[in-house]
Request: fold
Amino acid sequence: MTETILNGHYNFAFLDEGAKREIRRSVLKAVAIPGYQVPFGSRELPISRGWGTGGLQITLSIIGKKDCLKVIDQGSDDSVNAVSIRKLITATTGVLTTTDTQASTIIQSRHRIPEEKMRNDQILVLQVPNPDPLKSVSPKEKESRNLHAEAEYSGIWLRLYEKIIKYGRTTMGADHPVMVAGRYVMNPSPIPRFDNPKLNLSDCLCLFGAGREKKIYAVPPYTEVVSLAYEDHPFTIEDVSSRSCKYCGATNVYFDEIFDSVTQEHYFQCSDSGYCEKRRK
Reply:
């Protein structure tokens, strides 16, 4: 990586300006071709690959001094991953941070889309471990790229069919593949099925970064995103109709299931900690 220390201090947003320009160019191409995986030169960061370096590089490349940042990990603002990434970004940018989805301009997330509806002046950055749904079909990238170019997704449809035959339904709890703008099939990051519909015709720009795999892709605002499913076995989300949050009483949101070994209590609470906290105020 190009030297980022200037006069004894880190460059704004850690990465050097050339690296950020290159990543922004990849982001622009990804926005222009929804769902297409754009290769980019993934940089070294002071966190291990697999811990969100792809999403982090996007955030560091697009963030400005006037932005307000929210970082979540599986819905939580306080997990080790979220806290560590937030500290790195704020230490090298000085930007404001928040736990309130509506107050943020950039949200970097691992494995969740916030419960509150996002606006068209906000950007959602999702960390991605495995960007290509064809990897399980064809592990060689050259072959998978040819399959994407030809829109040959029969291998993915076969995987769904095999699960239906074996289990009577698709069993992908997360990372259920989606068709973007009627052209490219992509992995929506390992978000739960509950969050897949939030990508469809979303008001905000959604950016996906895979640092280890060196890929960036995007879902622009108001883009059609359809979860793959057969007509006789339609796509369904997790059934939360009988659940409510112990702390804020929320319903029809994605929950964490908790078992307290001390009190032997079994209960549910909002996965989105910022949303839960906001409802309790």
